[in-house]
């Protein structure tokens, strides 16, 4: 299923593209304190428009905001322009955990990890649609740069189908010789499995 744009009227498109173009100038890029993949437009706004940004990413943030108590940036608009996706969203103030993690007390670390655990548990508790397998929030392909060969996979009807794709369709006949552990891996891949859940597979060290 194709992901939909959010509030992508002409005015919002022009405003986002103008802000992106201004903030991409070499002068402003040198002045930014936090250069990276997201343009910090102001204390309240930021724009994400990398080569890997997708409309599903914006829809996911809106979905999480609507179905959980997890604080996520508000998405003001998202659209595709000349092959690139632009997301204009709220800039949430915070401090990267990676900056002072080693200086935190064990009690502080434990509280933060408990919060993250609760957030992930809340994500995974969202009831999935009955007809969705391994897919993004819109029913389209999942994105993971860590997977081999390609970054976009699926969608898949079942978890077993996803696992089969991971091993490039490899199956073993009864009695067929195989590398040590391969038959056990395939048996593990084939389940049985419970239904898929909504989750986040790449919590970064830059969490604020």
TrEMBL record:
Residues 54-203 form the Aminoglycoside phosphotransferase domain. It comes from Fusarium gaditjirri. InterPro entries: AGP_Transferase, Aminoglycoside_PTrfase, Kinase-like_dom_sf. This is Aminoglycoside phosphotransferase domain-containing protein. Transmembrane segments: none annotated. Signal peptide: none annotated. It comes from the Eukaryota.
């Amino acid at each position: 299923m194709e992901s939909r744009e959010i509030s992508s009227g002409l005015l919002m498109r022009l405003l986002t593209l103008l802000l992106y173009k201004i903030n991409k100038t070499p002068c402003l890029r040198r002045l930014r304190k936090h250069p990276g993949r997201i343009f910090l437009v102001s204390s309240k706004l930021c724009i994400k428009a990398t080569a890997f940004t997708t409309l599903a990413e914006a829809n996911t943030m809106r979905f999480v905001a609507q179905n959980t108590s997890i604080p996520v940036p508000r998405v003001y608009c998202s659209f595709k322009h000349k092959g690139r996706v632009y997301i204009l969203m709220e800039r949430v103030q915070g401090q990267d955990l990676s900056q002072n993690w080693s200086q935190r007390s064990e009690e502080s670390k434990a509280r933060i990890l408990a919060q993250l655990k609760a957030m992930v548990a809340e994500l995974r508790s969202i009831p999935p649609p009955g007809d969705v397998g391994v897919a993004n929030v819109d029913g389209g392909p999942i994105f993971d740069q860590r997977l081999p060969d390609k970054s976009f996979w699926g969608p898949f009807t079942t978890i077993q189908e996803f696992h089969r794709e991971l091993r490039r369709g490899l199956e073993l006949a009864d009695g067929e010789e195989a590398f040590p552990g391969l038959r056990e891996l395939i048996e593990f891949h084939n389940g049985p499995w419970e239904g898929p859940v909504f989750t986040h597979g790449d919590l970064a060290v830059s969490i604020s």
